[in-house]
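Thread: Modeling a multi-component assembly for a lab meeting

Hi all, long-time lurker, first post. My supervisor asked me to bring a structural picture of a complex we are working on to next week's group meeting, and I have zero experience with this. I have the sequence lines for every component (341 residues in total). Could someone generate the structure of the whole assembly? Inputs are pasted exactly as I received them:
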Amino acid sequence: MANFILRKAEPKDVSDILRLIKELAKYEEMEEQVILTENDLLEDGFGDHPFYHCIVAEVPKEKGTNGFTVIGFAMYYFTYDPWIGKLLYLEDFYVMKEYRGFGIGSQILKELSHTAVKTRCSSMHFIVAEWNKPSIEFYKRRGASDLSLEEGWRLFKIDNKIKNKAKKKK
Amino acid sequence: MAHYKLRKAEPEDVTDILRLIKELAKIVEKEDQVMLTEKDLLEDGFGEHPFYHCIVAEVPAEQQKVEGYSVIGFAMYYFTYDPWIGKLLYLEDFFVMKEYRCLGIGSEILKNLSVTALKSGCNSMHFIVAQSNEASINFYKRRGALDLSLAEGWRLFRIDKQCLLNLSAEE
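Re: Modeling a multi-component assembly
Sure thing. I ran the full set together rather than chain by chain. Output:
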């Protein structure tokens, strides 16, 4: 089994976090949609009011790939359900393919579960693309339920173009 | 048209917020699933680190259609983070009492939220809607909302408390 550690992300990790965000986006064939910069990640995650939190998985230098020792991450934040209160929302979760099959993903999920319980969250929520069968199976094996299937929830967005139009309307 | 005003919720609004949360839950026959108390809402929304924000819609005493209630609508939201585009405003709950519908209050709340989103540097507003709730889906679509579940195939998953306890205790 690979030697690795999990730790809270620090400001110096933002380049690795961005690199991994882009790798995951590439897997979803959406790499050009990543417009966030290292500066955004720094301000938004490590300022007075963090908008997200990250755990990173790190291997010793000699086990790194192309000089990278941070080989996985999970990005999460806290949301609020008006029926049951605080939730932990898992936003992004990725382990570089060279490091899969070693239990790193499972360990990250365990760490997140522990964080959720410690911070008195009632549940962990996240979205998965319906075509992403390996991820769906990974989560289902660990007891996740598909609320879109069971309860019919659909995700909507109103983006800036529309919001700007609405703002101008009297 | 009814006179009303929109304002940021204050600690004393938690009773009305809980009442409206329960009214909305009753519509989908899930009122018994509301476990939150006024104390939770107070600690979670008005402490050092608020986990949610609320706008409330209020009518003057003489305009009350339902006796005793001047807070007649609300929206609950918080900020989330998209790793591709950054900050988002997430609209969690949104309800206007039925006696006050079709007066433009819902539209005004949504406009207020849009201004808040833009002012806070958010690139988008996200929310979920039950696929059976055609009235709400049409309300949002008329205002330019896009169904991402349809367009991009996203499905919402949950790992509940018992599973979290099991996972965190695993060897």
